[in-house]
Amino acid sequence: MIPDIVRRYSGNPILTKAQIPYPVETVHNAAVVKHDGQYIMLFRSHLRTGRSIIGLARSSDGFHFTADPEPFLTPAPTGPFADYEEFGVEDPRVTYLDGEYLITYSAYSRNGVRIALARTDDFRRIERVSLITEADYRNVVIFPAKFGGLYARLDRPHSEIAPWSIWISYSPDLRFWGEAQVIMRPEQYHWDEMKIGPGAPPIRTEQGWLSIYHGVFQTMDGSIYRLGVALHDLRDPAKIIGVSDSWILQPEDPWEVTGYVHNVVFTCGAVPESDGTVKIYWGAADTVMCVGEANISELVALCLEHGRPAK
Ligand code: BMA
User: Fold this and answer.
1) Contact (Cβ atoms closer than 8 angstroms) between residue 266 and residue 259
2) How far, in Å, CA of 290 to CA of 92, rounded?
3) How many whole angstroms separate alpha carbon 282 and alpha carbon 223?
4) Which residues are paired to 114 by β-bridges?
5) Which of 218, 226, 286, 289 to probe ligand 1 with, by most ligand atoms within 8 A of CB?
6) What is 163-186 written as a DSSP string?
7) What is the pTM of this model?
8) Which of 192, 249, 261, 281 to mutate to test ligand 1, by most ligand atoms within 8 A of the CB atom?
9) pLDDT tens digits for 216-236?
10) 3-state DSSP call for residue 33?
11) Does ligand 1 have an atom closer than 6 angstroms to the CB of 264?
12) 42-86 pLDDT per residue, tens
């Protein structure tokens, strides 16, 4: 048997609706970062309306989390964001850059799904900055570094013509984004052939930016969400050095195979540790949160030594 590249934590699932002090139906697709020696998790929860909000949980070890008494981010009731968050806020990602945390999340409304950007420096107060895409975008992750003075992000537009792919674009100020180009496509008749999307914000390694993404395969019984890895050039993140041919995680545990949406492992965050491991967090079946650990060097090696074409 091939040893698992992602070692699941034996205490999975690590956060479920039973642990949330306000009424929610799910706890999934969470961003996780380290702040002031604590792990901060921003998680998505469905309400009984079917719409989503974002909660916050804290941990000292990255495995045992305690949720705050109140949600962290709920749809804006008034102001310029209100028209675009009416149906809920989903799937947050967090990037630490220049002394602040940049939070991107999906904003759903009758106008479609677009991405909003907010910032915080303490995870107590949050300031909405800008809606940074038009409709039909999801999965925006911001690099934790600038390139030639510009912010860079990966995202995933929807298209009726092309398979849903990973794009990159740049911004001088986090508000205006441009120079967009497609850098990675799904591979035909492959585990990620239906669509791919950025997962966790990229992690800096000596060999390049490690990106953990999700890939989807359609079956007669619905789609299967798995996780894969790609490596981007350190100085030019639009250049992909390698994409692992095989997935690193697929739904296997009972709470990954069965739930609100079955057969889903979906990541919005991973925390690199000083010992060379990374904690990867994933929503399981859109219902609960899980974590596993991997060696960063092994993930990089998968991209470099067992690759598939990026596009
Ligand atoms: C995607 C998103 C994710 C979700 C996944 C599986 O399109 O909606 O939030 O985890 O589907 O349902």
Assistant:
1) no
2) 16
3) 17
4) 107
5) 286
6) PB-EEEEEESSSS--EEEEEEE-P
7) 0.97
8) 261
9) 999 999 999 999 999 999 999
10) strand
11) yes
12) 999 999 999 999 999 999 999 999 999 999 999 999 999 999 999
